[in-house]
Amino acid sequence: MTLGATRDSVEDRPLGKKSIAPSLPDSVWLTEAPPATPALRGHTRADIAIVGGGITGLSAAYHFKQRYPNKQIVVLEGQRIGFGASGRNSGFISQEYHGWDSLFFSKGAAAVEPYAEYAERGYRQLVETIAREAIDCDLQESGALRLAKKDAEVRTLEKQVPAYARLGRSVELWQGKDLAARIGSEFYPAGVFLPHWATLHPGKLVRGLRSTVEALGVHTYEHTPVQQLRRGSPVELVCPDGRLSADTVVVATNAYTPQLGLFRHILMPLHLYVMVTRPVDEAVIGHGAWTSVPGRYEMDATHTIRLTPDGRLLIRGGARYDYNSRVADRHQPRAYQRLAERLLARYPYLGNVRAAHGWSGVMALTRAHTPLLGRLENDPRVLFSVGYNGFGLVSGFYGGRLVCELYANQPNPDLALMTSPAKAGWLPPEPLRYVSLNVSLALRHHRL
Ligand SMILES: Cc1cc2nc3c(=O)[nH]c(=O)nc-3n(C[C@H](O)[C@H](O)[C@H](O)COP(=O)(O)OP(=O)(O)OC[C@H]3O[C@@H](n4cnc5c(N)ncnc54)[C@H](O)[C@@H]3O)c2cc1C
Q1: Which CATH class is domain 28-143+196-443?
Q2: Is 358 touching ligand 1 by the criterion CB < 6 Å?
Q3: What is the pLDDT of residue 22?
Q4: Which pTM value belongs to this model?
């Protein structure tokens, strides 16, 4: 499939045409998954059971096992470890708090500082763990580019540069011909280069964390969806072929959490789409200066584009809310096709590049922008860390640690920043929620 070609053939059709990509394989990050661990069968016990094997669940397992080496800690994963957003994301990490700018311009630098410190601490925890545990996940701390598409956004970027400086971040504004020469595209009028951003391979991160926690003695059960969480002492987790009783349960199911019957009116699952090309020629990579600026995202959050460690281009875009917070990971060929068209519109020299992977993934929004983290009000044995607003690599990893500190009653200023269910703000009931969210996504150009 050639992005810019116009002729069809059975094996090799252009992505710019309709219905040509139904057979694209799923997430490129998950192609090297290890064999699955057996599902839970019969009845078993654990001191701490973690529901969900993504970055949050693995981080919680890591931090609990480090702190309590003698406790029996298990992870129950409904599909495969990394199956959720953790194995489907764009792989950007940052020391920046998502939403800092609106806080800065409405309440000033002092209001942002605790959140900026939270984001920095979270980032440091993640990269220090990657180094300490020798996790090879192609971490590239070479910055990212935040791009404006229209004049109003350029003005916003111009205002953000001194705001970044006020927060101690040195950033560079690139504009016009200078920007075009730096990224090989005239599509964007301006961009701010952010040296405090980085990219990594999320699949390798998940696999590395998984082998780290398994080596520490954490037991993982895959293909073990928790169907029911029965509160009490102990908490009972009911699965298709077995049951687990645990003194403490950590809910680490992010966007899937409403399906467990929790936070149905607070967490908003959003489906996003990704299309990845086959590896591109070095000349093409050089033309777009992809090696020097591998990570690029649009400031209206509509698209993220990056170079993958194995020389492919990835574009993430589109967002859809499914009725009643339903989560369904399914192929949407039309979405991949639109993404290919948008990649070409931004970088027309990619005309001979071919599509190789397409998938959807689901993230969770909270109204407050900070994660939802705490203990269930009516059962303090159940802890949770969910709702990362699209920034879960850092916040999910750090959330796994914060949940452990909450359990240990260890004071941490960042715990006070988290959203509690009582303060989260309710979503409107269905069908109003479905209509209002999707209309709002369409108005903000997120629908593909
Ligand atoms: C397309 C896309 C791009 C993104 N890009 C970025 C990015 O560049 N940077 C960034 O920081 N964040 C990004 N995000 C967000 C980030 O991926 C998530 O916030 C993060 O991965 C959430 O991790 P998690 O472990 O909490 O949840 P998940 O990774 O979703 O893991 C939850 C796990 O729970 C399992 N599960 C669900 N229900 C049950 C059950 N009942 N029983 C047992 N197991 C269950 C699921 O199978 C899943 O594996 C992106 C998200 C998407 C979808």
Answers
A1: alpha beta
A2: no
A3: 53
A4: 0.95
Question: Residue 328 has what pLDDT?
Answer: 82
Give the CA angle between residues 433, 359, 9 to the nearest 5°. 125
The span from the CA of 220 to the CA of 189, in Å, is 48
Mean pLDDT of 302-312: 97
Residue 387 CB less than 6 A away from ligand 1: no
- Where does residue 330 rank: exposed (0-12), middle (13-18), buried (19+ CB within 10 A)? exposed
**CA 427 to ligand 1 center in whole angstroms:** 21
Q: What is the helix (H) or strand (E) element at residue 154, kind and residue range?
A: helix 151-166
- Domain boundaries of the chain, sorted by first residue: 28-143+196-443, 144-195
| Residue 92, pLDDT above cutoff 50 | yes
Please give the Cα distance from 58 to 219 (Å, whole number): 11
Number of Cβ within 10 Å of residue 18's Cβ equals 9
Q: Give the tens place of pLDDT for each residue, 142-155.
A: 999 999 999 999 99
Average of per-residue pLDDT across 413-427: 89
Q: Which of 74, 145, 201, 254 to mutate to test the pocket of ligand 1 (most atoms within 8 A of CB)?
A: 254
Q: CA-to-CA distance for 255 and 89, rounded, in angstroms?
A: 13
